Amino acid sequence: MLVRVFGSAIHGVDAITITIEVNVGQGTRFCLVGLPDNAVKESEYRIETVIKNIGYKMPRLRTVVNMAPADIRKAGAAYDLPIALGILAASEQAVFAQAIGSFIIMGELGLDGAMRPVRGALPMAMRARQEGFAGMILPQQNALEAAMVEGINVYGMTHLREVLAFLEGREQREPEPAAAYQPGFAAGLDFSEVKGQETIKRAMEIAAAGGHNILLVGPPGAGKTMLARRLPTILPPLTLAEALETTRIHSVAGKLNAADGILTSRPFRSPHHTISEMAMVGGGSIPSPGDLAGAARHPVPG
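The structure corresponding to this sequence follows.
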């Protein structure tokens, strides 16, 4: 039996929808194809253990899992949940009352079936809304972040059993409510705390008002970092569009506190002087943002 489940892959700061096709037929071999990395390949062992631990059986037939499009590299353990659901449905151990094809489903699984958070929930939600999906199923820790995107229902779950109960119609759940956006500033910091330094304070005020860059040069202890940390407190608060764009970058980079849901204050990054070029500007075989992107102001046209 062939089953299709939809997930997402992060490429840069954007998400790409991934179709996970699972077919169970004659044979005895498990095959995972579609350019997966080692963490995805290892999902076979995690998923087999999870399925047994929650009272189901791993099919002893030929199981083929194809992750399309096959020319995009799939990385990380966040595909555990959609692959496990595909295997249970393709082996006819689970019959879904909900239309599984209308959801984007992502989540890492522990060996007991507990769901662990993933990176990039916000860009995944943006892509899901753009492509017309009705909802998303994610770990509970990512639900608040993804729920900031209007027009899509986000269901936060803590265990594979909860996902199965919801999809099979045995349990009704309400989508995660979106928290009202409240712009703020970094706690415990304020530009007014700087005493003296009148020349540099005036220069930073002008730069902040005009959106100019600033180069601070001086010996250690002169107050460069102290001043830079307080500069965001005299900038206008983040608009919702700016907050979503900034949160998307931090979510992909794995620097977002899941409890916050969305960044409400302008970010500040203080990289060490030995930081590598790639860590500063971003990149890599699987592109990811660096500290420059994480600290930048991202105006949204319009």
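The two ends are 48 Å apart (CA to CA).
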